[in-house]
Write a structure and sequence with these properties.
It is built from ten helices and no strands. 34% of the residues are buried. It is 73% helix and 0% strand. The longest helix has 81 residues.
Length: 332
């Protein structure tokens, strides 16, 4: 009886002694699985860190390049706007705002690109998903704006010659130099004509020295000439038709055997060349000027979006990578 009791008492002890061994064996398996999970996560993190570093470096270099390109586009737009015969002076003469609108879009796009380059640097350094998402989305919006500007520039270049000549005749005959103090439209037209004639070195609407629409247009078909007839000293052409030099000889205030006093002189002595007067009309030069500069605007607005596409791709890839790393760390 004693032996049975002892066996009965020792069995639970032996069982109790075996149970801890089983209890200790289960945490070892869990530790191994945890270690393997951590090692897998660390290897994945190392791979992600390599990709993230590569994307970060690419985006940094891209931001520097895009900053330079954005400042360049901004500078071109501002120059086209503030030059002597800029985009604001073209509109009153041609009666079309496409060139001016395109220039403003180029300025807005270039400024936005330059500003976004700074935001992109901040988002890349901090690896902030929200900043990177905002950066990529705004780049996409700027891309659309610049594509619109490019399309408008080349469209304007294609339809540039339509109705411009008639518009030039009407504005010069009716609006030029009339009530410039009280009439805003006439003042803008007068300033635009003066800027164009100085910049393009032309005078009048079209043609050459002997054309009725060149410099002689002022003294035969304009309201400006009617005002000049009421003055004690009448000018034949405005001062914007003159090169640097003798303004009185150019405008007809000083006697001269040739333009602008004599027109189609039948005598040889009345056919002298006035060295200070622009005798060629502005139409052909204006068309060439607008075609050239609209092509410049269109090319700039077409080149910048090519770089924007690369920035959009890299920024969203880095954003997705940062989001993936954050989710992996949360799981571990």
């Amino acid at each position: 009886m004693v032996n049975r009791t002892d066996r009965h008492e020792t069995d639970p002890k032996s069982k109790e002694g075996l149970i801890p061994k089983r209890i200790h064996s289960q945490p070892l398996k869990r530790q191994r699985s945890t270690r393997s999970t951590r090692s897998t996560a660390s290897r994945r993190r190392q791979h992600d860190d390599t990709c993230t570093t590569c994307l970060r470096g690419t985006l940094h270099c891209y931001n520097v390049c895009i900053l330079i390109i954005g400042c360049g586009a901004l500078g071109v737009g501002v120059w086209l706007l503030v030059t002597d015969f800029g985009a604001r002076n073209v509109t009153p003469i041609v009666g079309n705002q496409l060139y001016e609108v395109t220039t403003y879009l180029l300025i807005a796009g270039g400024g936005a690109v330059a500003l976004l380059a700074f935001c992109g640097c901040c988002g890349t350094i901090r690896e902030d998903k929200c900043v990177l998402s905002f950066y990529g989305t705004t780049l996409a919006i700027v891309l659309i704006l610049l594509c619109i500007a490019c399309g408008l520039a080349f469209f304007f270049r294609g339809v540039i010659a339509d109705h411009i000549r008639g518009r030039m005749k009407n504005t010069l005959a009716i609006n030029y130099g009339v009530d410039v103090r009280t009439n805003t439209e006439n003042r803008r037209i007068t300033e635009s004509w003066d800027s164009m004639q100085r910049q393009l070195q032309c005078c009048g609407v079209a043609g050459n020295t002997t054309s009725d629409e060149a410099w002689v247009f002022y003294s035969t078909q304009t309201q400006w000439n009617k005002k000049e007839l009421q003055k004690p000293e009448r000018r034949m052409v405005p001062e914007s038709c003159c090169a640097k030099g003798d303004i009185h000889l150019c405008t007809g205030l000083k006697p001269f055997d040739g333009p602008p006093i004599f027109y189609k002189g039948h005598l040889e002595q009345h056919r002298e060349i006035n060295p200070y007067l622009y005798t060629t009309g502005c139409y052909d030069k204006l068309i060439d000027y607008l075609k050239t500069y609209s092509a410049v605007v269109g090319c700039v607005a077409a080149v910048v979006p090519i770089f924007l596409v690369l920035g959009i791709i890299v920024s969203f890839c880095l954003c997705a990578r940062v989001a993936g790393i954050t989710s992996d760390e949360a799981d571990v």
